[in-house]
Design a protein that fits this description.
three-stranded mixed β-sheet; single chain; mainly beta; about 15% helix
Length: about 240
């Protein structure tokens, strides 16, 4: 069996049991103004794919391919990094392959040498997060920026390990992974730079042990989009959670 399908199937089965409510029982309802676009009985998936330092340089990643695994639905990002109109199956979780363009970053004002975005990724699209109105935002680093990220953190990039980027829509709270990983980095609300920590609007887990191909993502309190996420050697896993 294709491994990615076994992971997708496990996610679909597990999703109803994943974090949608906090200990206080409060849940995030579907956004009544959710716009399904022209997707009919499918789920309209939109968001952005931006540079690692987007808070400082405001730079989208153009011509990256987002494609639903096994389905064929796809979109190329626009110059500002936006993708839109990808019609997902109406199921709890859908995985998409993310393939950056082979061209160099076009970020102006960046202090880092122009270079391409080397790492492919897997985007986790959670139906309840989309319907709740959360904004999906993913980011990645260029080859040159990757080297500086790891140098500043005091350890080396490990090509055989996975990388996990969690975008937190709503109230930032600590994010954790069950799998072993290097110390997390985060961009705090109102900040423009990365710093050590597990709380912010974006949280990065470097060098995650891919193990059997998945791990558990946790956020305390009421948050949807948590639970089992896929891991793959040499790839980013992109997740958005809605924390209330």
């Amino acid at each position: 069996m294709d491994r990615r399908w076994s992971i997708a199937a496990a996610l679909a089965l597990a999703a109803p049991m994943l974090g949608g409510c906090g200990d206080d029982g409060s849940c995030i309802p579907m956004n009544p103004s959710f716009d399904n676009g022209s997707c009919g009985d499918h789920i309209n998936f939109t968001g952005e794919f931006v540079d690692w330092d987007n808070d400082a340089v405001n730079c989208g990643i153009a011509n990256a391919l987002f494609q639903v695994q096994g389905d064929g639905a796809m979109d190329l990002t626009s110059p500002n990094g936006r993708f839109e109109g990808i019609c997902l199956p109406d199921q709890p979780v859908t995985l998409l392959d993310v393939t950056p363009s082979t061209g160099n970053s076009t970020c102006s004002g960046s202090p880092y040498p122009a270079s391409p975005y080397p790492l492919p990724g897997i985007a986790v699209a959670h139906r309840d997060v989309i319907r709740a109105g959360a904004f999906y935002s993913f980011r990645t680093f260029t080859a040159a920026r990757r080297d500086s990220v790891f140098a500043a953190a005091g350890f080396s990039f490990a090509p055989a390990l996975a990388q996990v980027l969690v975008h937190v829509h709503g109230t930032p709270r600590p994010v954790s992974l069950a799998a072993a990983h290097a110390p997390p980095q985060a961009v705090a609300m109102g900040a423009t730079t990365w710093a050590p920590g597990d709380t912010g609007h974006d949280v990065y887990f470097p060098n995650v042990d891919p193990g059997a191909g998945s791990t558990t993502l946790s956020v305390p309190g009421c948050a949807i989009g948590t639970g089992t996420i896929p891991l793959a050697s040499g790839k980013f896993t992109y997740v958005t959670v809605f924390a209330q």
